Amino acid sequence: MTQKLRWGVMGCAQIATGSVMPAIVDSETGMIKAIASRGIEKSTAVAAEFGVEKAYGSYEELLADSEIDAVYIPLPNHLHREWVLRAAEAGKHVLCEKPIALSSQEAGEMVEACNKAGVHLAEAYMYRHHPRIAELRAIIAAGEIGALRSIRGTFTYNDAADNTNIRFKSAWGGGSLFDVGCYPLSAARLLFDAEPEAVTVQAIFSPEHDNVDMMASGLVEFPGGVSLIFDCGMWAYNRQLLEILGTEGRIEVPMPFNAREEDAEFFVYTGDGTRRVEATGANPYVRQVDDFAATVFEGKRFIASEDPVYNMRLIEACLASAKRRERVSLL
Length: 331
Prior knowledge:
This protein is of the alpha/beta class and 331 residues long. The protein is built from nine helices and 15 strands.
């Protein structure tokens, strides 16, 4: 019998009820033991929907539950630090939604606290767990498109009319860089297998949306003269694309951050022609849950590291560049 990680879910956000909780239910290694909300009525309703035995009206009660091994935190960005620290203190492993914090300093505190408590901390970039990412990296490593030269990443959608959206609250970590820009930024770090040296970013800061960045585009410089060119937005036409350019070819990845079972294909262009690759399909949220459990039970992955800190350093630099309208060095 597969060992089961007993999860507590801290909040009833749509990402929890629509994606992560169903993934835990469908996973081989997880079970939802409890859900908490700031109101018992809401958590009770969600618990009933998912067949969860315990519902709490506070996060403190969930953390005090000795039958919970790990917590998933889908709370607004500005609450991540507090509840990751509290979870670590309670001895719970933590899967926290991206972006993990409001700053690299906060992220560093969270990583340090989890390391000190001997619990695992993971930032929930689910796309990294889709089999397509490993298959892309294998093609790059095999040299099929030659030496890497540039990556282009886009992730935009238009939700500007929804004035109640928490993504439009500056003090809560709102803005397009925090919400969707983090995807191409983290993907470039992963695919280049390097840390950036400098960024130059331009953004639209909207007074009617609490002055968060509603659209941003920029250049991220990596060692050796290679770069990421990206744009992200919450006030632009819906689209996603990742293009990986090499000296001998390129790879085009449609829907790079939301692929599941049926839409995992990508295309390799070289001098020999175009090759359509039907990558292995999967639910990346389920894979993320199972990978996290493998870390807890077998030490395979996800041990608290500096990766969330580097992600936040890059986002911070992009915001600073956009606000100051100048190139920002990360060296």
